[in-house]
Amino acid sequence: MEIRDKKIEDIxxxxxxxxxxxxxxxxxxxxxxxLIDAGSDKLVLDLNGLEYISSAGLREFLKAAKTLKAKxxxxxxxxxxxxxxxxxxxxxxxxxxxxxxxVDDAVAVFK
Length: 111
Fold this sequence. Notes:
Oligomer: single chain
GO molecular function, one term: anti-sigma factor antagonist activity
Distance between the termini: 29 Å
Pfam families: STAS
Organism: Oceanidesulfovibrio marinus
Family: Belongs to the anti-sigma-factor antagonist family.
CATH superfamily: STAS domain
Shape: globular
InterPro entries: Anti-sigma_ant, STAS_dom, STAS_dom_sf
């Protein structure tokens, strides 16, 4: 798994490549928590490079969503590949976390 982050104005964009599974979920969660703790309250996860996500990975997404909601922040994901989108849909995460087709669409909603 590889994580890269950048800012577009006051919106934190996090690009995730590879897999989020039992062996990488904690590292992913720590990276997202560090960004939130550093003051990022608008977070877009660009999952265009994400090939696989397990229940451990979904748990980290849920933790981030809850943390940001408690801080009146905003959270969205974008660029989901078919398999990852299917996991989000089947698990009900599509009703918890807004899903957009691309970074530009997600950023536009946050402005």
